[in-house]
Each structure stands twice: as structure tokens, then as C-alpha cells.
Request: fold
Amino acid sequence: MTQDNHKELHTDLLQYLRASRPVVLSTVNSNCQIYARPIYWLTAKDSKHIRFAIERKSSALKNLKSNSQVFINVLGDNIIYGISGVAKVLKEKLNAEGKHTMIEVTIKETRNQLQEEDKEIIEVEGPWIHYRPGNEAWAKTEKAVFRELVS
Reply:
């Protein structure tokens, strides 16, 4: 079944985002230029909301505070989606990692970019983020951030 436009996350996309997978977040700056950056600490709160942690000093955070419209590109494991939504700051400073802010996106639209007939031709393998040996402290921090994002 093909999902063209929906106002919430389809089951496969919801499960993918809950698996702590990276995505690309696009925001718009004050000069109407698009700014895209990877987001690693992201999860689906429910079928209508995505939460992520972003650096408090980042250009993306500055952009979304002045223009709350965001676009998220999801590419992986035989799914390719575009998600548009409205972002708001939920928490200025995370307890788990004080350099980050918690953002919640209310989904306006999701668009499936990988049709069923495409899956007969191509296979998409999504990105994973792994910590290199010796960085176990960051892995612990990541777990604490995700617990805070879903709370």
C-alpha cells in the first residue's frame, strides 16, 4: 500500500524513528535560506509528534525560533519520507546533556517518497550512528537523553 500524504506518522515510520535513527532536519533562516543538518538524538513521541535534542548554540535552533516551520528527511531501511511540521521548544536545557534543547515537532504532513514499485528495483539501507570504542560515556549520555525525550 502506498501512503502519499498523511497528517501523522505511518506505522513503519513511527517504528523507524523510535529506533534512534539519524535524520536530516531543514530549517529556514532570516534570509529565507534553507539550512539542513543531521539530527541524531530524535524519537517519535507518538504518531503526531517528534522530539529531538539540538545544541543550544546551533544555527538550526536560532532558525526555528524565528521560523517554526521545519522539514525532516528520513532515509533508511526501505523507507524514504519527508515530514513537514511546526517546531517549538519544550525545554531550554536538557537535564541529561545541558548543551542541548528539547524540541517538539507537531506533524503537519508526511509524504512517502518510496513507492511500492520502487521497492522492486532498489533497496534502501539507512544510516546508523555507533560510538567508537572508548566513548562509552557518550553512549550513556545518549540513553539518558532519549529517556528524557520520551518522558
